[in-house]
Amino acid sequence: MDLIIGQLLGFAMVLTRVSAFFLVLPVFGWQSIPVQVKAAITILVALFFSLTAPFAVGLPAAAGLGSGRDVSVLEAILLLSNEAIYGLSMGLIAASVFSAVKVCGQIAEQQMGLSMAEILDPLTGEMGQPLAMLMEMIFIILFLSANGHHLFLLTICRSYEAFPAGTIPTLPIMIGGIVQAGSTLLIAGLRLAAPMLAAFLLLMVVLGVIARIAPETEILFISLPLQVGLGLMLAAMFIPFVNGFVAEFADWMGKLLPL
């Protein structure tokens, strides 16, 4: 009976970590995916890792199931809480780095003067900018075509090698990874948008010179279509560089995740 309880507790811990990870994870955690599909994927992945994760050997003894005593309700809650915190931290780090392309699109739209143009994002169910969503969808297609979803499954696998179920992850490492992921989001977004910012700055300088040379020129009516046209042209030129960010995203995941 104790062995069955230990196996159920182990599966519950694996399910808690996987569920927390998928809850905030890009692609898997979006509202556009039906809840039934999310639940089925989570249970299947948790069932697989519950059969292969290191806890299958080490957890009963570590939790006291194999040493002649039972795990109390408080101990079980603490174990599940540790798994939930660890899964949420991994998902938050992945989501932060994943949003760099979207931040780049938002910066470009601000320079184009289209920051007030908002439409419903079908992926998250929130309001967003159309250009940013377009660039994000292109990045998603390239990411999935490069088997990027395998990277998320590999992340879970490596998490159980570093911190088997039932162990307490190092909190300073997790917090440092989340903070560094936030800074990486801003740095990567600005770096991707740097050519666009330079082009718009050059455009503003040219318009300023024209305004001084020909004061009667309606700069406002000229600048708006020029900004939109330049932004769309730069966005089309930027798309090939998104493919390179897929490999960079995998590198950041390996550096920032507490594994």
Keywords:
mainly alpha, 259 residues, 2 strands, elongated
Describe the protein's architecture and organization.
By secondary structure, the protein is mostly helical. The chain has one domain. It is built from nine helices and two strands; from the N terminus they run H-H-H-H-H-E-E-H-H-H-H. A two-stranded antiparallel sheet has the order 1-2. Strand 1 (119-120) and strand 2 (127-128) form a beta hairpin. Helix 5 packs antiparallel against helix 9 (219-256). The longest helix has 43 residues, at 171-213. The two termini are 34 Å apart.
Placed side by side, the strands forming the largest sheet appear as 1-2
Order of helical and strand elements: HHHHHEEHHHH
The total of beta strands comes to 2
Structural class: mainly alpha
What number of domains?
A: 1
β-strand percent reads: under 5%
Distance between the first and last residues' Cα: 34 Å
- Shape category: elongated
| Largest sheet composition | 2 strands, antiparallel
Radius of gyration: 24 Å
Mean pLDDT across all residues, rounded? 79
**What is the percent of helical residues?**
over 70%
List segments where confidence is low: pLDDT < 50 over at least 5 consecutive residues.
56-69
Q: What's the total helix number? A: 9
